[in-house]
Amino acid sequence: MKIDVAEVVVTSPDRNFVTLRLTTDDGVVGLGDATLNGRELAVVSYLQDHVVPLLLGRDAHAIEDTWQFLYRGAYWRRGPVTMAAIAAVDVALWDIKAKAAGMPLYQLLGGASRRGLLAYGHASGRDMPELFDSVRLHLEQGYRAIRIQSGVPGLNAIYGIASNATAIGNIGVRYDHEPAQRAPLPAEEDWDTRSYLRHLPDVFEAARNEFGPELPLLHDAHHRLTPIQAAKLGKALEPYDLFWLEDCTPAENQDALRLVRQHTTTPLAIGEIFNTVWDYQTLIREQLIDYVRSAVTHTGGITHLKRILECAAQYQIKSGMHGPTDISPVGMAAAMHLGLALHNFGIQEYMRHGARTDAVFRQSFTFADGLLHPGDEPGLGVALDLDEAGKYPYQRAYLPFNRLKDGTVHDW
Ligand code: GCO
Ligand code: MG
């Protein structure tokens, strides 16, 4: 079975998505997600100009060989653009292999290790009443684990706070706060770490008083703290029993988490902007984290993320795969199949896509009683409707950026 056609499809139903669509000489179609939020067209070029010519005529079954060929053959290694492009090829080939075998992909990855994947959603509010309404809405929608992000008095716009609420279909309201606005220039947010550190423990105390001790609660600090600030926050949050504190320090500095770890037992998660196993070497070997946050889409696909998670398993570190709306339904399906099969699955981030996105990408997953399941269709269980996709051309979008009160650009 040879790769006969390789197309890169860019569509922007609710936001931009980049999809690689491979067709074999006997007509099997495989899909891979290559969406890199705010830098989408760099991956399109990497695929179209440099990878597609290498794929035509290759054995579609040779997944490991193709991975090594694309990774080592490029010579220039790692990085989000390269690893998203390789991920798209890898996932499309797994989709093809599973369809050829007539099985849902998780069966090829070892079979189901559980009934479904515990998923968490994003609740947020500018103040506590708004935040609590958002938590209640998520509970009504079936979530059994919830990330909470709150406004900070004195700051106008910060990461993770819903700016608008959109009514969608029969599932209620989607809080559309995922960053990357369709805009000619990035939006500016503001930040003050001392105000945040003072305010956040009160938010968690109020949330525990309101929703009780059982509900798993998570929080994302989005890389904005120094190691000692993160250590202080982790300690302050210990009474509220977080499921995890995410990205507390800038992700480039693996050593930072050694200091954080010395001071707090709050579980730590990191990795959404990592792209290879080498970004995790220190973190895994020294047991400095509890959850691996990488997405299949940005980490070289199923082949490479499985490798990372198998290393992590030796140290009791679990998966917590990245799943905001900038991971396409194809990338989400890949995460669900891998998560269902892995022994050391922890939790899956899951935000709902909009109705237009769901019409472009027809999906077979289910979400019931807090658990996701990828479904039992052969392959990933996602079909790309090219006519629908063609209705929504690419629109330039940028992630926001952040300034401190004195104007200094800060981690966003
Ligand atoms: C998360 C992430 C996202 C990122 C986004 C950037 O935890 O889901 O932090 O909200 O900011 O994926 O493109
Ligand atoms: Mg995050």
TrEMBL record:
InterPro entries for the chain: D-mannonate_dehydratase-like, DgoD-like, Enolase-like_C_sf, Enolase-like_N, Enolase_C-like, Mandel_Rmase/mucon_lact_enz_CS, Mandelate_racemase_C, Mandelate_racemase_N_dom
An individual GO BP term: amino acid catabolic process
Residue ranges occupied by any Mandelate racemase/muconate lactonizing enzyme C-terminal domain in the UniProt entry: 129-267
MF GO annotations: magnesium ion binding; mannonate dehydratase activity
UniProt cross-references to NCBIfam families, sorted A to Z: ManoateDhtManD (NF043051), PRK15072.1 (NF011654)
Protein name: D-galactonate dehydratase family protein
